[in-house]
């Protein structure tokens, strides 16, 4: 856990675990700034994530994501900020393993079933969540990618919240108790 006043909260977790939804709510409850990394990358590049990946590939997307993460953590003007990260931010292991002392990383942990159900229902999946593996199907590949990423979420996050049976408001409430 951070040993000083918390100024930044990073919401981390797999696709469709509610990082964007809960982050917006949490920032508004705290009266802090808010940034959604995927939305920011889309805005900066003027394209949907699916287009960026189709045209330039995942390595290019990760390079841009990495620069943005560093900028947010180390050069942001906003003193207090809630950050909804992209699902793959744990791949930037060197950054996540050396977070500033005022930054709390929260893992929104959901079951395979919840993730697949939410991804299938969410119209944003088509343009925000292109396939990550050779399987070519973002829903079918979830188990394989989760298996790789769960140890990273566990290693880098200070706290985990099981979100399957909680509403966004309940999740935001839980996180609030750590930030005050
Ligand atoms: N606690 C919740 N209970 C039920 N549905 C939820 C909850 N949180 C989010 N959702 C729904 O799940 C879907 C995905 O949510 P959201 O976009 O916030 O996830 P995300 O973690 O930001 O995903 P990504 O990593 O792809 O950006 C949305 O349709 C949202 O309405
Ligand atoms: O899990 C991932 O690697 C990703 C999740 C989304 O938030 C986007 O950042 C993008 O689709 C990559
Ligand atoms: Mg999101």
Automatic annotation (TrEMBL):
<feature type="binding site">
    <location>
        <position position="87"/>
    </location>
    <ligand>
        <name>substrate</name>
    </ligand>
</feature>
<comment type="function">
    <text>Catalyzes the specific phosphorylation of the 3-hydroxyl group of shikimic acid using ATP as a cosubstrate.</text>
</comment>
<keyword id="KW-0028">Amino-acid biosynthesis</keyword>
<dbReference type="GO" id="GO:0005524">
    <property type="term" value="F:ATP binding"/>
</dbReference>
<feature type="binding site">
    <location>
        <position position="149"/>
    </location>
    <ligand>
        <name>substrate</name>
    </ligand>
</feature>
<keyword id="KW-0547">Nucleotide-binding</keyword>
<keyword id="KW-0963">Cytoplasm</keyword>
<feature type="binding site">
    <location>
        <position position="20"/>
    </location>
    <ligand>
        <name>Mg(2+)</name>
    </ligand>
</feature>
<dbReference type="InterPro" id="IPR031322">
    <property type="entry name" value="Shikimate/glucono_kinase"/>
</dbReference>
<keyword id="KW-0479">Metal-binding</keyword>
<feature type="binding site">
    <location>
        <position position="38"/>
    </location>
    <ligand>
        <name>substrate</name>
    </ligand>
</feature>
<protein>
    <recommendedName>
        <fullName>Shikimate kinase</fullName>
        <ecNumber>2.7.1.71</ecNumber>
    </recommendedName>
</protein>
<dbReference type="GO" id="GO:0009073">
    <property type="term" value="P:aromatic amino acid family biosynthetic process"/>
</dbReference>
<comment type="subunit">
    <text>Monomer.</text>
</comment>
<keyword id="KW-0067">ATP-binding</keyword>
<dbReference type="GO" id="GO:0009423">
    <property type="term" value="P:chorismate biosynthetic process"/>
</dbReference>
<dbReference type="Pfam" id="PF01202">
    <property type="entry name" value="SKI"/>
</dbReference>
<dbReference type="GO" id="GO:0004765">
    <property type="term" value="F:shikimate kinase activity"/>
</dbReference>
<feature type="binding site">
    <location>
        <begin position="16"/>
        <end position="21"/>
    </location>
    <ligand>
        <name>ATP</name>
    </ligand>
</feature>
<dbReference type="GO" id="GO:0000287">
    <property type="term" value="F:magnesium ion binding"/>
</dbReference>
<comment type="similarity">
    <text>Belongs to the shikimate kinase family.</text>
</comment>
<keyword id="KW-0460">Magnesium</keyword>
<dbReference type="InterPro" id="IPR000623">
    <property type="entry name" value="Shikimate_kinase/TSH1"/>
</dbReference>
<keyword id="KW-0808">Transferase</keyword>
<feature type="binding site">
    <location>
        <position position="62"/>
    </location>
    <ligand>
        <name>substrate</name>
    </ligand>
</feature>
<dbReference type="InterPro" id="IPR027417">
    <property type="entry name" value="P-loop_NTPase"/>
</dbReference>
<dbReference type="GO" id="GO:0005829">
    <property type="term" value="C:cytosol"/>
</dbReference>
<dbReference type="GO" id="GO:0008652">
    <property type="term" value="P:amino acid biosynthetic process"/>
</dbReference>
<feature type="binding site">
    <location>
        <position position="129"/>
    </location>
    <ligand>
        <name>ATP</name>
    </ligand>
</feature>
<comment type="pathway">
    <text>Metabolic intermediate biosynthesis; chorismate biosynthesis; chorismate from D-erythrose 4-phosphate and phosphoenolpyruvate: step 5/7.</text>
</comment>
<keyword id="KW-0418">Kinase</keyword>
<keyword id="KW-0057">Aromatic amino acid biosynthesis</keyword>
<dbReference type="InterPro" id="IPR023000">
    <property type="entry name" value="Shikimate_kinase_CS"/>
</dbReference>
């Amino acid at each position: 856990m951070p040993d000083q006043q918390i100024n930044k909260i990073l919401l981390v977790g797999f696709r469709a675990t509610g990082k964007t939804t809960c982050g917006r709510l949490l920032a508004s409850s705290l009266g802090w700034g808010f940034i959604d990394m995927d939305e920011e990358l889309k805005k900066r590049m003027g394209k949907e994530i699916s287009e960026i990946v189709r045209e330039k590939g995942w390595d290019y997307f990760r390079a841009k994501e990495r620069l943005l993460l560093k900028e947010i953590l180390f050069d942001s003007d906003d003193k207090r900020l809630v950050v909804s990260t992209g699902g793959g931010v744990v791949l930037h292991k060197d950054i996540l393993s050396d977070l500033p002392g005022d930054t709390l990383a929260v893992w929104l942990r959901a079951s395979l079933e919840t993730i697949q159900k939410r991804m299938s229902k969410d119209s944003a999946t088509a343009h925000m969540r292109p396939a990550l593996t050779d399987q070519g199907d973002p829903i079918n590949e979830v188990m394989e990618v989760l298996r790789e990423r769960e140890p990273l979420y566990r290693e880098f996050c200070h706290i985990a919240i099981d979100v399957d049976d909680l509403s966004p408001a309940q999740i935001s409430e839980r996180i609030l108790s750590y930030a005050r």
